[in-house]
Amino acid sequence: MTQETGHPGFAGHSTNLVGIPTGLLASATFNDYPLALHINGVREMNKVLFEMLERSVSAEDASEAFQSYMGALFGLDLEQRVKQSNSNRRFKSSFLRLLQGWGFDSNGPEGAVLKGWVESRFGLFPSFHKTPLARYPSKAWVAYVEEKMSSRFHNNSINLQLDLLYEYCQWALGRHFAPGRKHLALYRGVNGFEEHAIVEHLEKNTAVVRQNNLVSFTSDRSRADEFGDCILEAQVPTVKILFFNALIAGTTLKGEGEYLVIGGDYKVRFSYF
Prior knowledge:
By secondary structure, the protein is of the alpha+beta class. The chain has one domain (2-272). Helices cover 37% and strands 22% of the residues. It has eleven helices and nine strands. The strands form two sheets. Strands 1, 4, 5, 6, 7, 8 and 9 form a seven-stranded antiparallel sheet that branches. Strands 2-3 form a two-stranded antiparallel ribbon. Helix 4 packs antiparallel against helix 5. The two termini are 26 Å apart.
């Protein structure tokens, strides 16, 4: 077992909104033995939503309830939530627009806002946005901060929208999509490790790899090779899942099996097609 050198140590805020030390949350140990995570106050302040969800009889029914609640709370009608990028009208910021932007380019402005939300709620600094974010301050960090704070996406309580998305995702995983499960086997294709620093080699074809604070995985191994020749397989804690395509009807990222996952250090197995 050897420790890689030349990579910056983990950096994160000393506080977060989930009540678990950021260093622990970022560790491979947490991923092996995950604890329940909740963003402080979100469920308590939105009891009506979770009462609606508890009355739902299916995943589809729950999805409709969630979309109706978000539409009422943030003034988003169906056209604004799903088709806003196809219009020149000025719409209120929507979490679905951020997801759509991530699907086009995770290093775009929408990706910066999503990474900024993870930073503010879970305390995890991003490690990559267009380029490695190693030293602070730097031009790369300034560019990231400018994008994540853009008023273009912060005119409609966008962080609260994402808080509710995370809490709804956790509810739906526990009720409909992965009841009783603490992990899902997910895959990520990579061509190199500029964005994924190897922290520690464990044994043959296994290592601890530092993922960005928000990263895409897929549940379909055959799709992972479309994004890189090296396939990383990880046991991802369900408490670190923000979104997946089956969660909300009518939304899509790059593929049906894509998951948005909170990052940190993950034990992964390497393989090649």
